[in-house]
């Protein structure tokens, strides 16, 4: 077991959504022994406590709709979620999938393997967040490159220069203003849109004007 993960556990807020029965109390006590800061919550709340990092949720038949409503309120990124199930049937499996659970704990709950399940679920959650962050960065990069390309096209058309010169002018402007070249590109695109809109507006006014007034 990674020492870094065990150390991280001490700083994670863990919510146990489980009836306040013997099993729920035992689960909460065991989580506390392995270094978590668990909070036993029941019935199902409208929202999770602020700052929740990990949720262990009991899939209880008569709480399905309440659980669905709760899952829909979870912020993005949602906490690491582990589902506790009594049996496998289509309705239970569907709710587990809807929850976005990254691990499943079967009943009766046994202390052995709980820490491993937590570690695996948290690791999957971390990898998922890293992938999402990389995807956002890549999307921003592509959008930035597209903006620079469009801005260069505008400069080439309006100033009668080649692509290399357009790029040099973009870069010089970015350095002069101490901002990213993508930001300069966006300004140029916005300016071109404004100019086009202005020309279109003037054209529309001329088209709609009274011919007698033009005489």
TrEMBL record:
Signal sequence interval, chain numbering: none
GO MF term (any one): RNA binding
InterPro entries: AmiR_N, ANTAR, CheY-like_superfamily, Sig_transdc_resp-reg_antiterm, WH-like_DNA-bd_sf
Record domain ANTAR: where: 128-189
Superkingdom in the source lineage: Bacteria
SMART domains for the chain: ANTAR (SM01012)
The protein's name: AmiR/NasT family two-component response regulator
Organism: Gemmobacter caeni
């Amino acid at each position: 077991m990674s020492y870094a993960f065990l150390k991280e556990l001490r700083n994670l807020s863990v919510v146990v959504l489980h009836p306040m029965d013997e099993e729920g109390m035992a689960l909460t006590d065991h989580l506390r022994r392995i270094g978590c800061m668990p909070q036993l919550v029941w019935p199902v709340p409208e929202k999770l406590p602020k700052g929740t990092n990990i949720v262990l949720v009991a899939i209880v038949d008569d709480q399905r709709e309440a659980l669905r409503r709760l899952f829909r309120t979870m912020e993005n990124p949602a906490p690491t979620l582990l589902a506790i199930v009594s049996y496998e049937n289509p309705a239970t499996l569907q709710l587990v999938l809807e929850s976005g659970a990254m691990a499943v704990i079967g009943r009766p709950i046994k202390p052995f393997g709980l820490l491993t399940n937590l570690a695996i679920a948290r690791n999957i959650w971390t990898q998922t967040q890293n992938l999402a962050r990389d995807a956002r960065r890549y999307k921003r990069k592509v959008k930035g490159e597209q903006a620079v390309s469009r801005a260069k096209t505008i400069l080439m058309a309006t100033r009668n220069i080649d692509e290399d010169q357009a790029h040099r002018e973009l870069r010089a402007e970015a350095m002069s203003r101490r901002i990213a070249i993508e930001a300069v590109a966006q300004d140029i695109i916005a300016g071109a849109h404004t100019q086009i809109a202005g020309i279109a507006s003037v054209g529309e006014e001329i088209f709609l004007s009274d011919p007698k007034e033009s005489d």
